[in-house]
UniProtKB/TrEMBL annotation:
It comes from Aquibacillus salsiterrae. Pfam families: MerR_1 (PF13411). Transmembrane segments: none annotated. SUPFAM superfamilies: Putative DNA-binding domain. InterPro entries: DNA-bd_dom_put_sf, MerR-type_HTH_dom, MerR_fam. The keyword Transcription applies. PANTHER family: HTH-TYPE TRANSCRIPTIONAL REGULATOR TNRA, REDOX-CYCLING DRUG-SENSING TRANSCRIPTIONAL ACTIVATOR SOXR. This is MerR family transcriptional regulator. One of its GO terms (molecular function) is DNA binding. Keywords: DNA-binding, Repressor, Transcription, Transcription regulation. The keyword Repressor applies.
Length: 107
């Protein structure tokens, strides 16, 4: 059974509100989507919907861009972080399976 996403993960914020929250223009936000740095969902009418986590990510992207970091470099860093997180998650799952198999209790 899938758990409900936290309020920070729910994609409910419109691009106009995201623009106000981040100080980015709607065009900048769409550009970051084109560069595969942000992944909004679409409503039934095709409107972009963002989460609070997306807003936080956009602020980080904007800060890095102000420092002169290129979007390609930001994307590479995001992919590296994602792989690291996936690896950590797999390790935790494996540890849990081993502990369950051998009856090891967590202290």
């Amino acid at each position: 059974m899938a758990s409900n996403p936290s309020y920070k993960e729910r994609k409910v914020i419109t691009i106009g509100v995201v623009s106000e929250l981040t100080g980015l223009t709607e065009r900048q936000i769409r550009y970051y989507e084109e560069r595969k740095l942000i992944f909004p969902e679409r409503s039934a009418k095709g409107n972009r919907k963002y989460s609070f986590m997306d807003v936080e990510q956009l602020i980080e992207i904007a800060n890095k861009r102000e420092e002169g970091v290129q979007t390609y470099e930001i994307r590479q860093e995001m992919l590296k972080d994602k792989r690291k997180d996936e690896k950590k998650h797999r390790r935790e799952l494996l540890r849990g399976e081993i502990n369950a198999r051998f009856g090891i209790q967590k202290e």
